[in-house]
Amino acid sequence: MTSLLPGTDQVPETTSPPLAVDARDIRRRFGEREILRGVDLQVRPGEFLALLGASGSGKTTLLKILGGLDREAQGQVRVPARVSIAFQEPRLLPWQRAWRNVAFGLRGPDVRARATEALREVGLAHLADQWPKTLSGGEAQRVALARALVRDPDLLLLDEPLAALDALTRLRMQRLIADLCARRGLTAILVTHDVDEAVTLADRAVVLREGALAHEIPVDLARPRDPSGPAFGTHRDQLLSWLGVQDPTTDLPEEKTP
C-alpha cells in the first residue's frame, strides 16, 4: 500500500481486514471553493464500487486523488502500488497504432506480446495494427481499457469511460468490464452519472453530495443482473431519490450512512 499525499501522517495499521483503498478526511480546494470536505472512503479488495453524484460534486477530483494525479489534496490515502485509470475520452495517440497505444510507457523485450494479450482480453487482438482514426468509439474505448489492464493493476479507476458510447455499445462494454474485473479479481471504482450502470456493475454504490459521501447502498443482487427485475428497480429508485431525480414511490431499503 502507498500513501499518495505528501506531508500527511500514515494511516494507522489496524487488526481489521485489509483494505484496497483507505482514504480518510480527504479535502481539496480550488481557490475559494472547497470541492471535497473531509471524505472518508474504504474499499475492500475485489470490490466494485460505483461513485455517483451531481456534476461538480467532486467525483472526478476524488478519483484523481486516489490515482495520484492530484497532489494538492489534504488527508490520508492508501492504495495498492499498481493503479490504472481509464478516462471518459480514450486519449489515444493518433500517430501510434493500437498496440503501441496500449504499450505506451512500457519497457522490455515482450512489450508487443503484452499489449497484444491485453487487446485479446478486450476482444481486439485482430486490430492491433490499426490506427486510432480507423476505430469505432467502442473499439477506441476498449483499446484504452487494454492500456489500463496491461499494467496488471490491483486497482482500476474508471472515470465515466462509457459516457460517450451509444446504448448498445455501452451495454456490451458494461458486460466486458464486469467480466474482466471478476476474472482478474480487480478492485474497481467507477465514476458514473448512469444509475442503471451503477446497479448493473457495482457491489456497492455511494453518492457524493456537496463534497462529502452522503449515502451508500450495497448492491447485493445475483449476477448477471436483470434491469427489469423488481430488486433492480428498488435500488435504482433509491439512488435516483438520493440524487434528487425523483421521489421514492416504493418501499426502499434503509439508508446506510458511510
**How would you write the strand order of the largest sheet?**
6-7-8-4-9-10
Beta-strand percent range: 15-25%
CATH topology of the largest domain, by name, is Rossmann fold
Number of strands: 10
Residue windows where pLDDT falls under 50 for at least 5 positions:
6-15, 248-253
Shape: globular
Largest pleated sheet: 6 strands, mixed
Helix segment count?
Answer: 7
Q: What is the gyration radius calculated from CA atoms? A: 19 Å
N- to C-terminal distance: 22 Å
Pfam families: ABC_tran
Region (Disordered): 1-20
GO molecular function, one term: ATP binding
Domain ABC transporter: 21-235
Provide a descriptive summary of the structure in words:
InterPro entries: AAA+_ATPase, ABC_transporter-like_ATP-bd, ABC_transporter-like_CS, ABC_transporter_ATP-bind, P-loop_NTPase. One of its GO terms (molecular function) is ATP binding. Residues 1-17 have a biased composition (Polar residues). Helix 3 (111-121) crosses helix 4 (137-149) and helix 6 (195-201) packs across helix 7. Strand 9 and strand 10 form a beta hairpin. With 258 residues, this protein is an alpha/beta fold. The protein folds into two domains: 1-82 and 155-258, Rossmann fold; 90-152. The chain contains seven helices and ten strands. The protein is globular, with a radius of gyration of 19 Å. The model is unreliable at 6-15 and 248-253 (pLDDT under 50). The chain is 29% helix and 24% strand.
